[in-house]
Amino acid sequence: MNISPPAAAGQPGPAANGGRAGSAARRGRALAVAAGLLGVAGLAPVALPGTAHAQGTCTVSGPTTTCTFAFTGTEQTFTVPNGVTHVDVTAIGAAGGLEGGNNTPGGRGAQVSGTLTGLSGGQTLYVEVGGKATNDGSCYALSQCTGGFNGGGSTYFGGGGGGASDIRTQPRTTPLTTTDSRRIVAAGGGGAGLVATIGCAAGPGGDAGQAGTDGGCSGGTGGGAGTATQGGAGGQQFGSPGTLGTGGTGGGPGISLTGGGGGAGYYGGGGGGNINVEVSPIGNAAGGGGGSSLVPAGGTGPTVTSAAAGITIRYPTPGKPVNTRLFAIPQQVRVGRPVVLDDLVCPAGTGATTPPTGTVTFTDTTTGTTLGTARLVLNIGDCAAAGRVVFFRTTGAHVITAVYSGDSVYQGNSGNPESITVTVKS
Predict the structure, then answer these.
(1) 36 phi and psi angles, rounded to 5 deg
(2) 391 is in which domain, residue-wise?
(3) Of residues 245, 277, 283, 285, the one with CA closest to residue 263
């Protein structure tokens, strides 16, 4: 095998190589030695991850890959593929729970869309698909009716709040703050209040971004809607306010909680007010308020929808994968002596019609310095190679990485770069 790096590869980066430039003759001899050694070196290709590792369902259609995530009741993850720096997201929050005795409806969730930028290959995004509170009017006999997964407010006799659907850069075990890692949030709807007196109007939950409805016959007041800066106010008769990411609890102390739970969101909606027993006929409980959404810059929404909660991620289908192999010749060297770094990039699998192009950047991660960038040149078959000659002034182990940039056909390996250790002695 004859690796022939470009002429520029013999010129180390200005400050990154930790040493002085050798003469042109020295660089030429070093490259020649490297070529001879690589000619007998056994290549064990290193496979690079090229597709998203998602817990959702991913399909490829032409230049676009689409991953869909449905409700599971647990946190899901999505790993950004190599070469992908942005993804387009559509998120739908969950509806609030109905009040089962009279089928009083909960509020609808929100739909938002936007582009998440500044991503890098190998990065993990945490996907939270909101759950709908499925109260049927009898859960009070067992325990408090919890709200939908991912922040839906609870109640006892009414409907729980719907959970929000969001994508974040930190797992849900990380507490939420006003500068938290959520990048997009589709709010959930508020839950319905309990109907205690037939013939009086019910208290439906508020849609995402809207307040809950008051209970009939001078019943409790609806929970307020969450906003971009604060949770919705709790309805009169003991409804609790929404908080960051969580809807408020339906009104009433103890087991008399009868107002609808607030919907989850960036800020949650307030819980609906309790039954008012001081009027005749007794007033019904109020619905919880819907939560607020977070829309990325340039995104669309929120709009109210009856669609099921879920998250869809779309991104440009990455190029073909490559195998790379990084060499350092020699791997043990004295201070001030030349070391040839050479990265071989080959198509992985079948179907390749052209050799990889682009550049390789070499970095000494031990000192945090860039050793230089070299352009790939045709090497053998469909493979290409890029090289640098570098010098080290400090002793010890230097961990060197090589990152292939990728091109219009092949994907880069920034999420899983090759590395090798060079030991420098005095």
Answers:
(1) -65, -40
(2) 7-50+319-425
(3) 245
Same domain, 289 and 348: no
Q: Which of 317, 347, 365 is the last residue of a domain?
A: 317
The answer to whether residue 411 sits within a structural domain is: yes
Q: For residue 346, give the H/E element and its range.
A: strand 339-347
* pLDDT average, residue stretch 308-334: 93
HSE, CB side, 13 Å, CA atoms: give it for residue 134.
4
CA distance 191 to 260: 4
31 SS3 class: helix
* 375-402 residue pLDDT tens: 999 888 889 999 999 999 999 999 999 9
Cα angle vertex 133, ends 130, 137, to 5°? Answer: 180
Buried b (16+ CB within 10 A) or exposed e, 287-314: bbbbbbbbbbeebebbbbbeeebbbbbb
Return the H-helix or E-strand segment holding 26: helix 24-40
Q: Look-up: residue for tokens 């009027």? A: 279
Q: What are the distances in angstroms from CA 153 to CA 39, 132, 217?
A: 67, 11, 24
**Mean pLDDT across the stretch 260-269?**
97
In angstroms, how far is CA 326 from the centroid of its own chain?
A: 31
Sign of CA dihedral 84, 299, 174, 310: negative
φ/ψ bin of 336: left (φ > 0), alpha (ψ from -120 to 50), beta (otherwise):
left
CA distances from 164 to 22, 187, 291, 343 (A): 61, 5, 8, 46
Residue at a domain's end among 317, 343, 362: 317
| CB neighbour list of residue 143: distance below 8 Å, 6 or more residues apart | none
